[in-house]
Predict the structure.
Amino acid sequence: MIHIPSAVILLFAAPLAALAVGFFVTRPYKPEWTHIPVLLSCAVVCACAAYLAAFVYSGRGLDGTLFRWMVAGDWDVPFGVRIDGIGVSVLAMVSLVGALIHLYAVGYMKGDPGFARFFLLFHLFYLSMIGLLISNNYVQLYLFWELVGVCSYFLIGFWMHKPAARRAALQAFLTLRVADLGLMLAVLILMGLYRNTRFAALYAVAGGIPTGVLALLGVLFVWAAAGKSALFPLYFWLPDAMEGPSPVSALMHAATMVTAGIFLLVRSWPLICVVPGLPEFIAVVGAVTAILAAVLASTQTDLKRILAYSTVSHLGLMAFGLGLGQVTAGVFHLVTHGFFKAVLFLCAGILAHAAGKSTVSVSEVGGLRRKMPLTFLCFLVAALSLGGFPLTAGFYSKDAILDAAFAHGGWAAAAGLAIAAGSAFYISRMLFLTFFGSRPEQKPIEHPHEAPPVMIVPVLFLSAGAVSVGWLGRGLARMLGSGWPKSVPAPALEGPTSVVSSAGLAAAALGAAGAYWLTMLRPSWDWQWRRRRPGLEALFFDDLGWRRVPVACVTAAVWFADKVGRVLDRDCWDAAIEGSTGVCRRVSEAGSRLATGSLSDSLWWVMIGAAALLAWAALR
Amino acid sequence: MSAVVWAVSGMLFLLGLAAVVLRRQLLAMFLGLELMVVAAALALGHEAGRAGLAEGLVAVLLVLAVAAAEAVVGLTLVLRVHWSGRPTEADALRELRG
């Protein structure tokens, strides 16, 4: 029995206690106080995460079982914790960003009739993600993975009186069902073949697993991650998930939801990286996602949708970095992205809050930098970070990925530069359209007001993070080394070469300059092309037609199920059942013909029976 | 001796059976039934006498008594059918009701 630090226990105990108090005490009696136990729990979780980060940074690690969860004969699933570099580095980001978003939500959700429900679900979401990050086996990871999914369903559809919210929640949930099937199959295969899904055990035998099995597992993991992390074939649910409250979007995009898929890939990396070709496949998927989403983000008009496509793009970038073999760069970008994307979403939430709506489009803003200076400052910092401005967090992490892309060369380098330019373009466009101007087409929010301190202070802290976490890259690389299997190349993070940095910077500058030209020098251009080419706008809003593909797939599946159901059910199954009654009737009719009721007929039968009995007695 | 008795008994039995199965008139069938019973009683009485078993002879007397009682019941039934106005033929009586 190994010693489990109490910080690990508290990671589960504090949120569970807060949820219990919130559900049984404050929700029925004092719903407007529900945030108090939840915020206390957030503080405890942050402290524990900081302690564990130091624990891992000092080279220690932990992989232990808390209790046997499912037991059947000599087979069991342990419920355990794995405190290692990957889990804790993401955990530190998730707990801090998540806690600050909780604080922001206190202001944002104030006065909402579902205040208590919101905080309980929000905290369960947070708890699920924490559990996912420190699971030590795939079954447990799958449990928390599904908990994250179901919490996202409830939170996207939080305002269930809106039909669009209900639809978006259902779409997200069903898309994730399709994707999660991959993870479930992978877990079942692992359980069937190895009776054990602990990461430590699987890392140890990774080299001995047949390549075919590993390839299948890898593809299933990528499929599951593509659903959760909104990568190319299955990304479409994420932009529609903007129907929830802004803190939900921020938490989902920055900390809890979409990072889970990338995290799954990193967790499974020792299994994935030994399959020839699979990392390159992940890189291609990531690059396609990143470029497509960057194009789409540049054409959206709704502020939260722009940010949603930007998240898709950056998740693609993380997968791209991972696929090029740079695990550290991928995780590094995951962490920095968490900070700056949270700021961007919370700023969009402040604008929506000022407008009194759940979201605003670019036509309802413009020239807000004087009226909302703090929001502008935070947004500017996060946008610079996202665009890769030197010394900000995004600069370091994106350069680490670009470095890997240049080392790979060829298409990867071109894709990396295209992503850098695209990111800078769409975020600059959003910045200029929102805070500069205003243009004749824009009708800015009436009487915009700066958010209350409870909302703006967490955003300021997160902005500080969006600038500074990039400086921790080497520390992160050191943390990631803890608990990383020896057989896999150890994660390292060298500073990018000056060539890579300057190329990335030039691409970003080009993107920003393009955005400046199109939004500041030709202020009405964004409205003009939409008016002149409504078909083109419709094409972009349709995701270049990709949005039709899943719809067509679902329609085809429904058609197929209908056909199969009808043919099988009506023409085979029902026919068999109804036919069987006919057979029974005919048999009994034939039998009843024997029973004429005539005495002489009966006597014949008696005679035949007696003769048969006699013959049997004689022959025996 | 024994063979003669068995042959007579068997012949009587088959005659009775033939009457029961082939004839349609209730009275004739009833007659055949009585013949079968008597044939069986004849064989039983012969064998019991040969073996010197009093129980067998007693059983023959019992069978004859039962046959007499049965004749009373059977003839009454046939008469009831006759009085109800229906032909006393087996094929006319297909249902128990009425």
